[in-house]
Automatic annotation (TrEMBL), chains A, B, C, D:
The keyword DNA-binding applies. Gene3D superfamilies: Tetracycline Repressor, domain 2. This is Helix-turn-helix domain-containing protein. PANTHER family: HTH-TYPE TRANSCRIPTIONAL REGULATOR BETI, HTH-TYPE TRANSCRIPTIONAL REGULATOR RUTR. Residues 37-56 bind DNA. It comes from Streptomyces sp. 900116325. InterPro entries: DNA-bd_HTH_TetR-type_CS, Homeodomain-like_sf, HTH-type_TetR-like_transc_reg, HTH_TetR, Tet_transcr_reg_TetR-rel_C_sf, TetR_SbtR-like_C. Residues 192-212 are annotated as: Disordered. It comes from the Bacteria. Keywords: DNA-binding, Transcription, Transcription regulation. Residues 15-74 form the HTH tetR-type domain.
Length: 212, 212, 212, 212
DNA sequence: GATGAATGAGTGTTCATTCAT
DNA sequence: CATGAATGAACACTCATTCAT
């Protein structure tokens, strides 16, 4: 009844609903891929369809939000690991977390690959993630823990690749990605590196490609 | 009967249409992923919708056909490379061809990963490919060209992973996969291999996972 | 909750639409038989196609709903007539109402006959109707108003038969069914009944036949 | 090779194919109703789809042909029974044959009821059947075997009604129609006929209704 | 004449999105 | 602001019909 009290209450609800929706959407996309319907997401969140659209005017918007959350999570982890002493261990931990996160979020790869992604926030988040991971990678490079020709953007891209390698086994061997992560790490720290036949991708290229 | 063999007639048109359709479907799926509609495929092929369904009674059937074509192509290449003297070079060439082929067929990865794949022909073709690639891999292993803990099924899975790593760059740097292939090869032939933390996938697990 | 009951609002519209749809469907089926398309029904109701499917997720569901409405109407009439003094007049009135109702609902006969009818509600409603009509028939039998070898299920089946007899005349002589109803009633009350060559159908047989 | 010999040979094939098609169509329609597809009919006949359309340019035409065959069969039977001594027995036999034939030809009722039937041949055949049956009925009337207010057209219409009465039981009790035929015959020969409340249908009304 | 491949309008159904309540 | 009914553009798929061989 207190006029002032209602507004914060509603705000609180909106925040709660937004979180419910993001969780529901993540679960739904993880299970059915991008084909998961807005209706199912609403149901999982225990909300009405209209409410979903109030929060995310478009399915693409919801996708962007969920992707941003993952990117933020990864960037946060990378930032925290910058403080670690052992750069090699830090990089390994980042990649472990990263691949694991992808496994829980089947939509992510599909979203990253889709050329129609319009959201500049996502592009910015990807770029930012690449910057932080480059810092992480640079330390490992400087410590001689990994070869010199690998960039942070390489590392970010490799997360998706490792996940994809193990994806066909997800149903029967959900931990198989660990095998391919290790194999990749062996490639990164090889004592006898080949000359890589293609220059490293630049950050803007990654994000632009997500645009074109 | 002899007459029938000499009279290509209608049959020739059908063969041509089938090829038109497979090509159109590959292109459409490459562009829009599995969401590409049967209608668009028909249009791309310059045929009527009904014709698509005469050739492939179901979207799933068309998908299976397109996937089989790719698998056959890979298995054929692998088989031919079994004759080569230099096992390491042969394996490298197989993987090069493989990743290149995947780039042209974006549907492939989505199809391989999809749990509902019902076509036993596809499952059989995957299994067969794994067998041939295992032979190819075994020779490289025996020649000491790659580490001892990598199987043919690993190699097949890695094709998808390498492709995925470079996929976000496809639009701007279509050759970027070469970088990640080389990196992977470095991992495969490392002089100081780590103990891989997960046992190698068995062939049946791969194909079963495509089933479950 | 009290508030919800007093606020017809949206709900009122939905109820109205449901009725519009049932009426439109009845008309469409009456005109074109079961081939009437969901699209046409939507158009007749002045609603969009999607709305039809929101109310009745399947054509079969719509069919079931329309059939249930008719069955309920018949069962209600039969129940009310159980109170009448003159059992013969009551039975006649029931049959009159019944055949008249069928004339307005050409789908009914096709639905009743269709073996794939999955809806247990319809089966239950048929069974229930047969029970009530058996009560009505029993009274007439006991009063000697009709022969002793006729059951309620016979009466229910005869409604469809009488309707069908006059169906080819519907367009030019919409009241012709009265002629065949009277003829049937004469058969039912004949003073010199033949031995009927086939045992009476059991209720479960009727409903099971709609199942098998 | 003899130029003259080919024509009769082809003629013979055409006649054979026509019969194959009519039988296949009758079976298919009996099983699935009018929804039976031209494709299935072709398959059942062991012929190609094109051949069906050479014989019957339209599904409606095939329907008409099949219906004509049934009508001819009934008219033939009625004609033959005109010679019998016992008119009552003859009428009973005609009706028995008639209802039995309908049971084997589920399409017939649907065809008779369908207002869009355009074929004048069918209309003529119905009219002719009514004439012959009227002769049969007249004899029974004159012999006092049935009531005086029943016409041949009534009898023809009753065939469909009796069949429909038992139709819902067809799957579980294929002979149930005998029960309702007997009941109808009791109505026809009742010693105390009611005044039928609607004048008898005229032949042209029947056939016109099939037109409107 | 027989064949069956091609056609394309039509069907039931789904789903992102809008909007009245 | 939340709700869920209404919308209508797709979609996969079917089938009578046409026509090149």
């Amino acid at each position: 009844m207190a006029a002032a009290a209602t507004t914060p209450g509603q705000r609180a609800d909106m925040v709660r609903n937004r979180r419910l929706l993001l969780d529901a959407a993540a679960a739904a996309f993880a299970e059915h891929g991008l084909e998961a319907s807005m209706g199912e997401i609403a149901q999982r969140a225990g909300l009405a369809k209209g409410t979903v659209f109030r929060h995310f005017p478009t399915k693409e918007d919801l996708l962007a939000a969920i992707t941003l959350r993952l990117l933020d999570q990864l960037a946060g982890a990378a930032g925290r690991l910058l403080e670690a002493d052992d750069a090699a261990a830090a990089l390994r931990e980042f990649m472990t977390n990263g691949v694991e996160a992808l496994a829980a979020d089947r939509a992510f790869c599909e979203v990253i690959g889709r050329p129609s992604l319009q959201h500049s926030e996502v592009r910015d988040a990807i770029a930012e993630l690449c910057v932080t991971v480059e810092a992480l990678t640079a330390r490992a490079r400087e410590q001689g823990a990994i070869r010199g020709d690998i960039t942070g953007t390489d590392i970010v891209l490799l997360l998706g690749g490792i996940h994809q390698t193990a994806a066909p086994l997800l149903a029967t061997q959900p931990e198989a990605w660990r095998r391919y992560l290790e194999l990749t790490l062996d490639g990164l720290r090889t004592a006898t590196p080949s000359a890589l036949p293609h220059r490293p991708p630049l950050r803007p290229e990654l994000t632009d490609s997500a645009l074109t």
